[in-house]
């Protein structure tokens, strides 16, 4: 709050006796002169100026406090901005890691496709081998069957020959 200066105090002291005379005149109901009215107006203006000075001091204090508050808010904003940049950096890091995972996933997917192609090739080879085995089995069965028939024929033929030979020997020996 602004303090009264020496000049203001001197002015108040100069008009104070006059104001007391005017107040006495007014309370007695006497008419006031132009000079009396002007003196009252000067006092009123002085009080008004003091009141405005007080208000100006209050406004200045409020502005100073607002500046302090604004500086505090500005500091907090800068802090938040820094934290935002940290978060943005972490986001970019996560984005990079995601792209790396995505790249590795595509690489793994391509390897699975290659492995699937190898399995299909292997499956085709097994089918070919199965067909060859079935063909080989059929030929083996035919060969075994042919060999068994041939052995049976030879065995029956040899048995018939032996029986015939024994019968001839038996007839020759008994006759």
Automatic annotation (TrEMBL):
Top-level taxon in the UniProt lineage: Bacteria
Transmembrane segments: 154-173
Coiled coil: 49-111
Record's keyword annotation contains Membrane: yes
Keywords: Coiled coil, Membrane, Transmembrane, Transmembrane helix
Gene3D superfamilies per record: 1.20.5.170, Designed single chain three-helix bundle
Name of the protein this chain belongs to: DUF1640 domain-containing protein
Source organism: Aquirufa regiilacus
């Amino acid at each position: 709050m602004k303090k009264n200066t020496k000049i203001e105090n001197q002015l108040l002291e100069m008009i104070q006796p006059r104001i007391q005379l005017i107040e006495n005149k007014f309370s007695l109901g006497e008419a006031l002169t132009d000079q009396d009215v002007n003196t009252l107006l000067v006092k009123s203006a002085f009080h008004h100026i003091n009141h405005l000075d007080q208000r100006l001091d209050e406004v200045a204090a409020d502005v100073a406090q607002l500046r302090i508050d604004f500086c505090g808010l500005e500091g907090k904003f800068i802090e938040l901005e820094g934290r935002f940049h940290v978060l943005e950096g972490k986001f970019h890091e996560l984005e990079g890691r995601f792209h790396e995972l995505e790249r590795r996933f595509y690489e793994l997917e391509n390897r699975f496709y290659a492995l699937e192609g190898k399995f299909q090739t292997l499956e085709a080879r097994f089918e070919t081998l199965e067909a060859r085995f079935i063909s080989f089995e059929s030929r083996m069965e035919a060969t075994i069957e042919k060999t068994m028939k041939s052995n049976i024929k030879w065995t029956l033929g040899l048995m018939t020959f032996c029986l015939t030979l024994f019968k001839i020997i038996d007839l020759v020996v008994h006759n």
